[in-house]
């Protein structure tokens, strides 16, 4: 690996991966390729923007000519695909962009990677492809049962990755991460939305009874999991990247409020997300067997996250305007009006 194309790296996890890779592997050229949608933010890349091994190119992964150009210009030998529409609620309101980027965009990247002779293609995927599981832990060979337009689009992308490996022999690896949290996460997802709203004493719209279970993974642990799979994963294989930290949403929110010193009375139970998966949980022994180990407990990760949002209002306050407020109104106005105490 010398010249790595990292798509979607102006977003939350991709930018953490880029910051890590630039520092960890100074001899690699890290080329970021990002469309800069509402979720893409060059502020996330400021800490590395002056580094010699960092390059940024703006573009759409579904734009074949632009993908070709960036692969040729930078002599790309490795692709790590983070680029996606990533928010479940938005996929319920407007699924088109999810099909465009997650399905068609991944196909175009794979096709151009094959033509260009790329030696390794890592697809960043999600535990949501397994769907809702009542009990136990999802294993890499379990059947897919995606339930939202988002998870269906990610499952579609994964099937195409598999097909390019089996049919064309492209050297692919897939990682399936669990619910990731940490600094620089766009304030539409549960934790950054609720932290920033609570800081302003605003109501926190918890869906349904708040007893849904998610497996929380600190972003820096997710990033090292992808690094291990990239360097050591077997071609054609998928690896779960789990937090092994399953918690009810309401408990996560209460812990966050305690760290902020804010009252639980900010929590409002609002009408549930349509098709809301009740529980995700994965086994990650396969990735562990390659040498991966998490460094963060939920306590240390949550504290670091809360303090980061407290210390970086410059980062999130400017996001909460324009398109963001339109989305917030569409998603929450009626729900909050119907809230139960
Ligand atoms: P994000 O929404 O913060 O960032 C997505 C990035 O992709 C943005 O920078 C955006 O500009 C870019 N992008 C969108 N469409 C593009 C296109 N057509 N071409 C090029 N760039 C485009 O997302 P995230 O939370 O950082 O998630 C990154 C990846 O990890 C996604 O593939 C997601 O499915 C996966 N994932 C996320 C989580 C999580 O909890 N956030 C967990 C598991 C897996
Ligand atoms: O599991 C991995 C997935 O985690 C990733 O693939 C997705 O990209 C990422 O967005 C995340 O999906 P979720 O839907 O689980 O994350 P979200 O932060 O939207 O919601 C977490 C839980 O909190 C979920 O059960 C819904 C609930 N929730 C969320 C929001 C935004 C609320 O109760 N109220 C809210 O306002």
Average of the residue pLDDT scores = 98
Number of strands: 13
What are the secondary-structure elements, in order, as H or E?
EHEEHEHHEHEEHEEEHEEHEHHHH
The ligands found in this model are: nicotinamide-adenine-dinucleotide, 2'deoxy-thymidine-5'-diphospho-alpha-D-glucose
CATH superfamily of the domain at 3-181 and 217-241: NAD(P)-binding Rossmann-like Domain
- Low-confidence segments, given as residue ranges, are none
Portion in strands:
15-25%
How many helices? 12
What's the overall geometry?
A: globular
N- to C-terminal separation? Answer: 54 Å
- The CATH C-level class name of the domain at 3-181 and 217-241: Alpha Beta
What distinguishing features does this structure have?
single chain, 341 residues, alpha/beta, Rossmann fold, seven-stranded parallel β-sheet, two-stranded parallel ribbon, 12 helices, globular, binds nicotinamide-adenine-dinucleotide, binds 2'deoxy-thymidine-5'-diphospho-alpha-D-glucose
Commentary on this structure:
The radius of gyration is 19 Å and the shape is globular. The protein has twelve helices and 13 strands. The chain has 341 residues and is α/β, with parallel strands linked by helices. It is 42% helix and 16% strand. The strands form four sheets. Strands 3-2-1-4-5-6-11 form a seven-stranded parallel beta sheet, with helices on both faces. A two-stranded parallel sheet has the order 7-10. Bound molecules: nicotinamide-adenine-dinucleotide (NAD) and 2'deoxy-thymidine-5'-diphospho-alpha-D-glucose. Nicotinamide-adenine-dinucleotide binds next to helix 1, helix 4 and strand 5.
